[in-house]
Amino acid sequence: MDYNGPFSINNLPYGVITTNDNAQKRCAIAFQDSAIDLTILQQAGLFREIPELEVRIFSHSWSKFAAFPEKVRQRFRQCLRSLILDRKVDAACIPLELVQNHLPMETRNFSDFYCSLEHTRNCSEIFDIQIRPNWFATPSVYNGRTSSLQVSGTNFHRPHGMISSEEEGGKAEFRPETCMDFELEMGVWICKSIPPGTRLDIDEAESHIFGMSLLNDWSARCIQLFDMFPLGPFHAKGSATTVSPWIVPIEALQQVKCGRMTSQDPPAPPHLYWKEESLATFNIELRVEILSLSPFSLSKAVGFGANNLYYFRTWD
Predict the structure, then answer these.
(1) Which pick of 16, 172, 210, 236 has the fewest CB atoms within 10 Å?
(2) What residues are annotated to the active site?
(3) Do 164 and 54 fall into the same domain?
(4) Which residues are annotated as a binding site for Ca(2+)?
(5) Structure pTM?
(6) Annotated binding site for Mg(2+)
(7) Could you tell me if 78 and 138 lie in one domain?
(8) Long-range contacts: 36-40, Cβ < 8 Å, 24+?
(9) CATH number of the CATH domain containing 124
(10) What average pLDDT does the segment 180-203 reach?
(11) Residue 18 — very low, low, confident or very high, per pLDDT cuts 50/70/90?
């Protein structure tokens, strides 16, 4: 297939769509320039060889499907790939520009990890603080605001909060944020819960990952500067967290496994040590492009490889 875009047959990411003629949320696969409506394939009996895929499994979200054992998910992908190659999905294809995207899974918890040493250094300079020793021993993390998760492209209001100004003698006033910041991050979608009182061995961590997507955790920096001490940011991080509407499944990422480019100093503690260092992370290139409207221009702001992160396998 002559196609150079992101949604190749080796990717087949998972999303949730609606259309103007059908307001019901349903699961879809992005393939080339189309969204494949899985409810149409299901109704046509094309997944009959996978009995676990009951009638309404592709309604509303991917959460039920994500909970299936890996073998079931792999069989589904193999079946889907065959259907595409045999041109049996054409009747279920909808042009991507005609679909409305929604959050691909239901979420009950959102944890925000602080995994990049470069980002940590930059933030330390902005806020004039030292990197604390605990950052090098275990990934820093805080609970995010789950209700702020929105699909990419959703508009949100500029946040207001308490902001302190040196020009006014440090007096804090309630006013709109003037320094909204974006963050290039990766979201990891978890498909298995961990019962209370139990621990997850790091060697089993990958089996709990359904897939990954791009994520932008918007930050109100002026509010954060006044808000974050001593317990960490709250109001500054509650406006919006936008995620890609398409989850790249963990099965599709197996082909880009690689070793980490960044060494940990001091070494990771035993419970966070990854035995297969040559397959410890993924060769995923990330980049940000900034569109300026006045004057109109497009420029590359930053590029980064996921295999350069100080922490990666310990995100979940």
Answers:
(1) 172
(2) 119
(3) no
(4) 112, 183, 185, 217
(5) 0.89
(6) 217, 237, 241
(7) no
(8) 36/80, 36/84, 36/89, 36/92, 36/93, 36/94, 37/92, 37/93, 37/94, 38/92, 40/91, 40/92
(9) 3.90.850.10
(10) 90
(11) very high
